[in-house]
Specification:
CATH class of the largest domain: Alpha Beta
Helix content: 40-55%
Distance between the termini: 48 Å
Radius of gyration: 20 Å
Number of strands: 6
Largest sheet: 6 strands, antiparallel
Strand content: 15-25%
Shape: globular
Structural class: alpha+beta
CATH architecture of the largest domain: 2-Layer Sandwich
Number of helices: 8
């Protein structure tokens, strides 16, 4: 519809519940979208009204505007506290953070399939996302001393990445490959592409001193 959305974030109901407890908020504990619009006072009002109309047509409820700077800051600060808020759902836990990205046209499908998978596995979790670009993160809250708990979370992550790649997405929206996604990069780009990358790595870094062991196996 041509609305220049500056920012749009997603929080699932578990994340909202955790933030309510952590930041002393009273948000409805349902899946939530946070929008930000930039422009003149009248331009922003027109953008927000159009987005509210679209939201209403898709059975959204509770559309609220936050125009005062302090109200906006409070909501965005709460969003940034999501990692710590979710850890409080299971004291003594640790988090496995995931990161994938799909075309926006496939986002809802990918997100719902992932949520169904993780609920079936019984892993404590929250889902947040920078959904304006199709990027979302599942934060899985696990017992670091329970190998079975870790294995369930890793299984969910592997299936999520495979699902995203099958939907013409990517294994990482913003976190990078690092150590954990070396095999996912091969799955996404193919052995031949990764071999070319490795050849360049060998040429530019023959002594393997530039961040060794990351992204590519030597």
């Amino acid at each position: 519809m041509g609305v220049p959305v500056a920012r749009v974030e997603f929080l699932d109901e578990t994340s909202v519940r955790a933030l309510n407890a952590h930041d002393k908020l009273s948000l409805p504990e349902k899946p939530l979208l946070l929008f930000e619009f930039h422009g003149s006072e009248y331009g922003v009002k027109e953008q927000a009204e159009l987005v509210q109309q679209i939201a209403d047509e898709h059975d959204a409820t509770g559309f609220e505007w936050a125009t005062r700077p302090e109200d906006r800051s409070r909501l965005w600060q709460a969003r940034h506290n999501a990692y710590f808020a979710l850890l409080q759902l299971r004291p003594g836990s640790r988090a496995i953070s995931t990161d994938c990205c799909v075309p926006i046209s496939r986002l809802a499908e990918c997100l719902l399939a992932t949520k169904e998978d993780i609920e079936r596995e019984g892993v404590t979790h929250g889902i947040i996302g920078h959904v304006g670009d199709g990027n979302f993160h599942v934060q899985m809250i696990i017992d670091p001393n329970d190998p079975a708990d870790i294995a369930r979370a890793e299984g969910v992550n592997a299936r999520m990445v495979s699902r995203a790649i099958a939907m013409q997405g990517t294994c990482t929206g913003e976190h990078g490959i690092g150590l954990h996604k070396i095999d996912f990069l091969i799955q996404e780009s193919g052995e031949a592409t990764v071999d070319v990358m490795r050849t360049i790595k060998h040429a530019l870094d023959p002594h393997n001193i530039f961040n060794p062991g990351k992204v590519l196996r030597w």
